[in-house]
Write a sequence for this structure.
């Protein structure tokens, strides 16, 4: 079975991480294994100078893993200018997940949920100058007349129900609910 990947997209400072935190918590509450992938347009550093893991990476390890009974972390060096695809990350790191949510990747072909705050922008990224056909929903603090469902920013249960029905095989017994989710 292919693991569904859904991208949460928005302009910086709009609340992507906040919504992702809530979606992950709710999906976990519903019993799903959830992977999360954060896109960083800049070089980030997860190792800290002087730590053993940093020293091993500095020594030339192409892949360095720290493991304990509680968690495992991996630092894998990418060849110059060769960012791995989300598909390869999912296949190698998230293969045991039920669903993967990404933060960013707004130019990807994955289904997208756009986060919007009217104080941040008057326009949507996916329904502005360009029409992104991969948009499946909007979470906003204002109403929009769109061809996809629009949820209140705090309607985490509604968004999770949409994800369950569209990507996790959960079916509704209510035709009104199905119509509301735009999947009838």
């Amino acid at each position: 079975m292919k693991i569904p990947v859904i991208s949460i997209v928005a302009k910086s400072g709009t609340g992507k991480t906040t919504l992702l935190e809530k979606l992950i918590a709710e999906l976990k509450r519903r019993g799903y294994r959830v992977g999360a992938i954060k896109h960083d347009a800049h070089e980030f550093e997860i190792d800290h100078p002087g730590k053993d893991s940093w020293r091993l990476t500095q020594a030339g390890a192409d892949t360095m893993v720290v493991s304990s009974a509680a968690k495992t972390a991996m630092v894998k060096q990418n060849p110059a200018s060769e960012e791995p695809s989300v598909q390869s990350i999912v296949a190698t790191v998230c293969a045991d997940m039920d669903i993967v949510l990404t933060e960013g990747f707004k130019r990807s072909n994955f289904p997208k949920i756009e986060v919007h705050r009217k104080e941040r922008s008057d326009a949507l990224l996916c329904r502005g100058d360009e029409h992104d056909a991969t948009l499946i929903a909007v979470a906003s603090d204002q109403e929009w007349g769109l061809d996809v469902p629009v949820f209140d920013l705090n309607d985490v249960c509604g968004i999770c129900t949409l994800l369950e029905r569209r990507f996790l095989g959960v079916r509704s017994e209510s035709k009104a609910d199905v119509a509301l989710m735009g999947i009838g």
Observations:
- The two ends are 23 Å apart (CA to CA).
- The chain has five helices and eight strands.
